Amino acid sequence: MSTIFQKIIDREIPADIVYEDEHTLAFLDINPTNKGHALVIPKQAFENVFDADIDLFAEMAATAVRVSRAIKSALNADGVNLIMNNGEHAGQEVFHAHIHVVPRFKNDDVFQPAKHTNYEDGESAQVATQIIAALEE
Ligand code: AMP
User: At 81, which helix (H) or strand (E)?
Assistant: First the structure.
């Protein structure tokens, strides 16, 4: 299904494009968490990690590294967060895969602290076993 990001790739709607190569595009998020917040997308659409082509994902990751370094240098950022929301209940709104590159500055306080949970005795080993089994499928 075509999304708003396909329209950016096809130059049907404007965007502040900061990087482009054969496989990927990076542009500024229209609703930035901090100024310079960029999105890295594959030109060949996939939704998220669940249907991703691994090689194409690797291209996205490489572009995210390049863009992160440029943002840190250009904006004098103290760091960046790389964030990818995969699935509606993980906060994904646009179903064309994208990695957020969010510049961070000391004390910018832009994210709420994440909630945490705890394992019962032996539960983490059980969860690890389930994941290992799925990786071996
Ligand atoms: P997500 O919640 O991870 O799917 O994030 C989607 C992101 O796309 C949001 O941060 C939006 O602000 C951003 N976005 C949506 N439409 C546009 C657009 N036309 N240009 C740039 N960023 C956009």
Answer: strand 79-83
pTM given for the model: 0.97
Alpha-carbon distance 44 to 120, whole Å? Answer: 43
Q: What is the DSSP string of 11-66?
A: TSS---EEEE-SSEEEEE-SS-SSTT-EEEEESS---STTT--HHHHHHHHHHHHH
- Tell me the two tokens of residue 82: 């790389």
Q: Which amino acid is at 131?
A: I
pLDDT at 1 over 80: no
Task: Assess whether the C-beta atom of 91 lies below 6 angstroms from ligand 1.
Answer: yes
Beta bridge partner(s), residue 103: 80
Is the CB of residue 47 below 6 angstroms from any atom belonging to ligand 1? Answer: no
The 10s digit of each residue's pLDDT in 72-125 is 999 999 999 999 999 999 999 999 999 999 999 999 999 998 999 999 999 999
Which letter does DSSP use for residue 104 in this model? E
**Tokens 């250009």 sit at which residue?**
74
